[in-house]
Amino acid sequence: MGFSSGELFKDRIGRSDGGADRMSARAYIAALTVFIAGGLLGSACMASLTYNMKPNWMWIAGYFVLCGGGVFIAFASNNWMISALGYILVIVPTGATLGPYIHLFTLASVLKIALLTTGASVGVGVAGAIYPKSVAHWSGYLLTGLIVLILGDLSRAFMPAFGLPAVPPALWEWAGALLFSGFIFFDMNRAMRMDYTLDNAVDSAVALYLDILSLFIRLLEIFGTKSED
After folding, report:
1. What angle do helix axes 198-223 and 107-130 make, rounded to 10 degrees?
2. What is the pLDDT of residue 172?
């Protein structure tokens, strides 16, 4: 990407362990890329194992417990290996839960949307990385948007019962796709302003991994072709 090793940005944020795992900008970007790609590949492998399974409420509860715990461990730890363990606790249940969901769509459709998501994520992520200013002030807007999106997803099924018109699904999915694209831009911009350490690379990978998968799900809902079986 043409970054010089050393100072890509001056306004660094994030935790540092005193430099024990500090690295150059090139090495940091490489590590971040490997962690993100590894997480997505791991989820794809888990999804292939659970593709034909039927999840129940215990499965879903287990997903939230393991994934939430993994995110907490990753962000709370200053040791990159412990953070990586937390990342694995996010990857495994997320991929396992994703399997039955993508079973609802044709394989060709899933692969097409996976390529579309990859291209969009790379484009938005690079834009966020090279944007010369911090977008930390976006955090409140993005969080508000996420809360509205979640509440909207939950309420859509109940609105008709109260005589209210349901929000068109396509409109809601597009709003989600735009929101998670914003999260990718934000988290990549933030990642490049953190100290260049392995632990920060893992932490940033966790956030971007969740952003990318969320974008994939929204795009699959918009453009995906449902399976007939």
Report:
1. 130
2. 83
